[in-house]
Write a structure and sequence with these properties.
The complex is a heterodimer of chains A (about 325) and B (about 375). Chain A has about 325 residues and is an all-alpha fold. Chain A is built from 14 helices and no strands. Chain A has a single domain, classed as ABC transporter involved in vitamin B12 uptake, BtuC, CATH 1.10.3470. The radius of gyration of chain A is 20 Å and the shape is globular. With about 375 residues, chain B is an alpha/beta fold. Chain B has 2 domains: about 240 residues, P-loop containing nucleotide triphosphate hydrolases (Rossmann fold), CATH 3.40.50; about 110 residues, Rossmann fold (3-Layer(aba) Sandwich), CATH 3.40.50. Chain B is built from 13 helices and 18 strands. In chain B, helix 4 packs across helix 5 and helix 12 runs parallel beside helix 13. Classes of the chains: A mainly alpha (about 325), B alpha/beta (about 375). Chains A and B meet through helix 9 and helix 10 of A and helix 2 and strand 7 of B.
């Protein structure tokens, strides 16, 4: 009973933060800050800055932030590695590479890519990097070495991306450069629909996996003994975490540390690691974290924007260090 | 009732067969233990029986059905496992670990029903783990951890329980505790227990069937009385530098070789501590005259460089006394811890008096050399 109370309280706090940050994101911006009253008036008038720029941007930041965090949680469960995440394992960078290539290719032929094909390109890249990591993880059982390999894959992909970008037409470079640093600035309402549907469906499927995920927490052998079809389950995990992080990379570029930091903060906050609680909670937490980071990225040096990864790294990287320190001290005791 | 049977089962990894032609069976309420040297494939066999490894030939029947025809869920309701490796969990308390055993019985999202909760509580009570419920699984002792894992296994309501070296990491007390719990589960809950054990002395005491695994096959299989013989154990483990006393379940180091320096007159258990002492001091000794039914006899046989025995229940013959005296003549000391001599071993009294006359008799080996 006490636990259920704690979960509900935590969910309530996160939801409240989400709502507040969401409104702040819509009210504030380089084109002028508005009070809540003004916001309602502007919204009913269909003000383009509110309706076509800030609203989709805030919604996108929230949804993609949630997706990224859940994707990280799935990867951590999969590799039984607390510092796994789409960014450190190079999965985001792999997606970035394929999206950049697809964009350059289509732009050079004068075709604009639609949202679905962006996700598809990104998904292919995610899966390719994931495949590499899986091959490596078969050989390397050590957690930290796996992460190092992931970071290396990330560097290789980023290097190739930069190479590709430098060959692109000059007019495309600015856009590509901004995107490859990670930003929500390109959000629009058309994208938002595709994102909501993709992330929504993936999240429902992920939630349905929470029972085997719970069993998987005790390791593969025990999960198998409990009746989990481990092979099939692992494939689901890979596909879902890849599609979730692919969605983020396709629209916002690679965003660092959300996938590692948020699930951990959420676990400590909720005092549990039960997937059935942590999956929705990570989504909420990721949404809050990304809204906050996006707001900071926009407002800190307004009117110029900094990349979202700059902000998420500043808040996220210390969490990773904290996780590693805590693990070390636990193992000693 | 036969619960599990293997037929011409070959087990191994990939294509490499590690043990072939395994034919074992187990009934409800029985305990079957696998013994054998490290690396003989006991774990591989257990994993294959538990359907975690695909058999490389032959089949496993569970309750009359072929194991590979059962769904994962059906299988998990028949069988529960406990592995050797230490489990690394993240933020899981012991109750959550036990609850995971209810997995095969819960619905899509895994919520526990009232009945599930009852099972969890009962199994925790049965193995005295209730007070650990809220503790983090990684923060408890090894003994407690095995008990929690056993609660988990029981909560799965299995007919068959498979354990891979459940006593590793445990100290003496917790080893005994765990094994008595397993015995209780087998006899009271009618669960069939299949496990591998390193401690053959414990295996001998707990199993109904012992299976020896060596060199890729089952070498011997049968009741403990059939399996635990000196020769079997010696050849199963290729024991060369020492021995295992089947009767006492004790491990003894190799007898000291060399010229005999001491003669120990023992009997009724007074000899064993002295034999062991000389063994530790690395001094070759002779022992006698020990009746074949004396409790000193099994150990004297293993540790003494020379042993003079007399047939059970017979008085010590003059001939044996003579051969003992012959040895005493070349010894520096004779140790005789015995105070009283009865009619059957009055000969030993004569030996003690003989040594006293020679001036080399001692009660204990304290000041030796």
């Amino acid at each position: 009973m006490k636990r259920t109370l704690r979960y509900s309280l935590c969910i309530a706090v996160l939801s409240a933060m989400l709502v507040i940050l969401f409104f702040l994101s819509i009210c504030m911006g380089s084109a002028g800050n508005h009070s809540f009253g003004e916001l309602i008036r502007l919204f009913s008038e269909g003000d383009p800055i509110i309706c076509k720029i800030r609203l989709p941007r805030a919604a996108e930041a929230a949804i993609l932030g949630g997706a990224l965090s859940v994707s990280g949680y799935l990867l951590q469960s999969f590799f039984a590695n607390p510092i796994a995440g789409p960014f450190v394992l190079g999965i985001s960078s792999g997606a970035k590479l394929t999206v950049a290539i697809a964009m350059i290719f289509s732009l050079s032929r004068g075709i604009a890519m639609n949202s679905a094909s962006m996700i598809a390109a990104s998904f292919v890249g995610s899966l390719a990097s994931m495949g590499m990591i899986l091959l490596i993880s078969r050989k390397i059982r050590n957690m930290s070495l796996l992460v190092v390999s992931g970071v290396m894959i990330g560097y290789i992909c980023s290097a190739i991306t930069e190479l590709a970008v430098s060959f692109a037409d000059e007019s495309n470079i600015i856009n590509l450069h901004n995107w490859s640093m990670g930003t929500f600035s390109a959000a629009n309402n058309r994208e938002l629909g595709v994102i909501s549907i993709t992330v929504g469906v993936s999240m429902i499927l992920t939630f349905l996996l929470s029972k085997p995920l719970g069993a998987y927490r005790m390791g593969e052998s025990y999960a198998e003994n409990m009746g989990v079809n481990v092979k099939r389950f692992r494939i689901y995990l890979i596909l879902l975490s890849s599609i979730l992080s692919a969605c983020v990379t396709a629209f916002a570029g690679p965003v660092s540390f959300v996938g590692i930091a948020v699930p951990h903060l959420v676990k400590s906050f909720f005092g549990t690691a039960k997937p059935i609680v942590i999956i929705p909670a990570s989504f909420l937490g990721g949404a809050v974290f990304c809204l906050f980071s996006d707001l900071t990225a926009r407002m800190l040096f307004a009117p110029s924007e900094i990349s979202i990864s700059t902000v998420t790294a500043i808040f996220g990287a210390p969490v990773v260090i904290w996780i590693m320190l805590r693990q070390k001290s636990r193992r000693k005791s | 009732m036969e619960l599990l049977r293997t037929e011409k089962l070959n087990v191994g990894y990939g294509r490499k067969i590690i043990i072939e032609n395994v034919e074992i069976s187990i009934a409800a309420g029985e305990i079957l233990t696998l013994i054998g040297p490290n690396g003989s494939g006991k774990s591989t066999l257990l994993r294959s029986i538990a359907a975690q490894l695909k058999p490389l030939g032959g089949s496993v029947y569970i309750g009359g059905q072929r194991q590979d025809k059962l769904s994962e869920r059906e299988l998990s309701r028949h069988m529960s496992v406990m592995f050797t490796e230490r489990l690394q969990t993240e933020m899981m308390n012991c109750r959550e670990v036990v609850e995971s055993g209810r997995y095969p019985y819960t619905g899509t999202l895994g919520f526990l029903s009232a009945h599930d909760n009852k099972c969890v509580e009962e199994s925790m009570k049965l193995l005295h783990t209730e007070e650990l419920a809220e503790c983090d699984f990684t923060q408890i002792s090894d003994g407690q951890r095995q008990r929690v894992m056993l609660s988990r296994a029981i909560c799965q309501e299995p007919e068959i329980l498979i354990l891979d070296e459940p006593t590793s990491f445990l100290d003496e007390r917790h080893k005994l505790e765990l094994l008595s719990m397993l015995k209780m589960l087998a006899k009271e809950r009618n669960i069939a227990v299949i496990m591998s054990l390193h401690e053959i002395d414990l295996a001998q005491k707990i199993c109904d069937t012992a299976v020896c695994v060596k060199n890729g096959r089952i070498t011997v299989c049968g009741t403990p009385e059939e399996v635990f013989t000196d020769e079997n154990i010696r050849s199963l483990y290729d024991i060369v530098n020492g021995s295992f006393s089947v009767l006492y379940g004790s491990r003894e180091l190799e007898a000291v070789k060399g010229k005999i320096e001491v003669f120990v007159i023992g009997g009724a258990g007074s000899g064993i501590p002295i034999y062991r002492r000389f063994q530790r001091m690395n001094i070759p000794f002779a022992a006698g005259v020990i009746h074949e039914n004396d409790i000193d006899h099994p150990i004297a046989k293993l540790l003494a460089s020379e042993l003079i025995t007399e047939r059970s229940y017979e008085p010590i013959s003059a001939e044996k006394i003579e051969s003992a005296k012959k040895i005493i003549n070349s010894c520096k000391e004779v140790i005789c811890p015995c105070e009283n001599f009865g009619t059957m071993n009055i000969g030993n009294k004569q030996l003690a008096e003989y040594a006293a006359k020679l001036g080399i008799l001692k009660k204990s080996p304290c000041n030796f050399p």
